[in-house]
Amino acid sequence: MKKPTKKHSANSWSNWAGAQTCHPDLILRPSGLGELTEAVGAAAARGGQVTAAASGHSFSGAALTEDLMIDAGNFSGVIEADRSSGLVKVGGGTVLSDLNRELDRLGLAMPNLGDIDTQTISGAISTGTHGTGADLPNIPAQVVAIDLVTGDGQIRHLDAEATPDELRAARIAIGSLGVITAVTLQTVPAFNLHRVDSPMELDDVLANFHELAADNTHFEFFLFPYTRKALTIRRNRTSRPAAPRSRFESYLSDVVLENGIGDIALRWSGRVPASIPKLARFSGLVMSQAERVDASHRVFANYRTIRFNEMEYALPREAGPEALGRVLDLIESERFPIGMPIECRVVAGDDALLSPAYERPSTYLAVHQYRGMEFAPYFEAIEEIFDSYDGRPHWGKRNTQTAATLAPRYPEWERFQKVRQKFDPNHIFSNEYIRKILGD
Ligand SMILES: Cc1cc2nc3c(=O)[nH]c(=O)nc-3n(C[C@H](O)[C@H](O)[C@H](O)COP(=O)(O)OP(=O)(O)OC[C@H]3O[C@@H](n4cnc5c(N)ncnc54)[C@H](O)[C@@H]3O)c2cc1C
């Protein structure tokens, strides 16, 4: 085997939140397909375990391994772009912020994105990363072809015409089918978004939830437990010209106010949990009206430095308001010390075999706990509510599910397992988390 291009000296890896760590025998950043197939082949021959790890923005243990960790960072950038059809092929390790800038230069954009842009395209699609929009599906639904190196050592090209089932499996596979080296995306012409943030009474948001979701291309809201206030965020397409914020404005709003002061307050609340309801009520009071117009990718992405742990579930769309009411009642009756908001988004159904929104328009509810603070009792209590709606977990976020509890919630579970058996018969692309959620 050739010498690895890059071996992290300490061979230790941790996720963004800092709560998932591992010590791989080798972290390999292959320089190209030859080195990648050789490394995967050698791992398969010795019965090893491999994961592809990207930006580490998953809260679950999806990317952990004690054996071989592949970093696909050298497979990055735009490979081919057809401006007339909007089809763009990019390296699997491309970071979303780089992708967005490249697309912008081509006069193109992703139709929908999540709320940060530091993940890679492969990491984002592999866990079913989504934004918000009643009629818009998640990011993997924008994928029309995938190139990957599978556990049987083959380089495969999957597309909707020749290999439809395999593509539907690989769009969201939590790294279990192989290492993605390229992704072809269906992009749209570049567009501007008008974002309006408005505080509202939570009861009004819940009573008008479906109208708000239908009337805005991208609707979401945040609410702080112990308040009855929500911060609604509406993003709509506009023909108005972009008016980007100055560096100073961005710094003041994102770094100092949102993240800096928020971090200090949360750190304080971690030391004095009894202060949390007061802190939450204060956060409810300082939510303010704001608006801006800018290129879509700059309006989608937020700057996040406050570290936390998160659990998020996709529920049937219509169950969203009722489930959220139950979550709030539980937090308040159990006095859980939660100083971070709950996020509520909507997503259209899609057909990826393991999509949390598989053939089901969904409401996504996400709960967060500040880093270093106990999250398990809170998340597990809330998870029981999500279970009662046949909720499907975001694969990149905390959950306590097993293959046995998940299989009945995914109508195409067996079809996915057949593709997994074909592409990775010895399950080398596995780890503790994958074995738990997908089975041995
Ligand atoms: C601050 C923050 C904000 C977030 N916002 C959102 C949001 O708005 N919406 C949302 O849905 N999620 C969100 N997430 C979750 C995040 O988008 C997902 O967890 C995503 O998978 C992270 O991508 P990554 O590049 O960091 O991949 P990693 O976390 O490193 O890996 C994720 C999975 O992808 C697999 N993978 C990575 N690269 C490859 C490859 N080349 N080939 C095959 N498999 C691969 C890994 O094996 C693993 O299973 C957020 C996370 C954070 C920390």
What does this structure look like?
The relative contact order is 0.14. The longest helix is centred in the middle third of the chain and has 25 residues, at 247-271. With 440 residues, this protein is of the alpha+beta class. It has an 8-stranded antiparallel β-sheet with strand order 16-13-15-14-18-19-17-20. The two termini are 28 Å apart. A hairpin with a 6-residue loop joins β1 and β2 (21-22). The chain has helices at 33-45, 96-105, 121-126, 164-170, 202-207, 209-215, 247-271, 276-286, 296-300, 320-334, 376-387, 403-406, 413-423, 432-438; strands spanning 13-14, 21-22, 26-28, 50-52, 68-70, 78-82, 87-91, 108-109, 143-150, 155-159, 178-186, 188-189, 192-201, 218-223, 229-238, 290-295, 308-316, 342-347, 362-370, 392-393. The protein is built from 14 helices and 20 strands. It folds into 2 domains: 73-189, Uridine Diphospho-n-acetylenolpyruvylglucosamine Reductase, domain 3 (2-Layer Sandwich); 192-397, FAD-linked oxidases, C-terminal domain (Vanillyl-alcohol Oxidase, Chain A, domain 3, 3-Layer(aba) Sandwich). Bound molecules: flavin-adenine dinucleotide (FAD). The site of flavin-adenine dinucleotide (FAD) has 33 residues, from β4, α3 and β11. Flavin-adenine dinucleotide binds next to β4, α3 and β11.
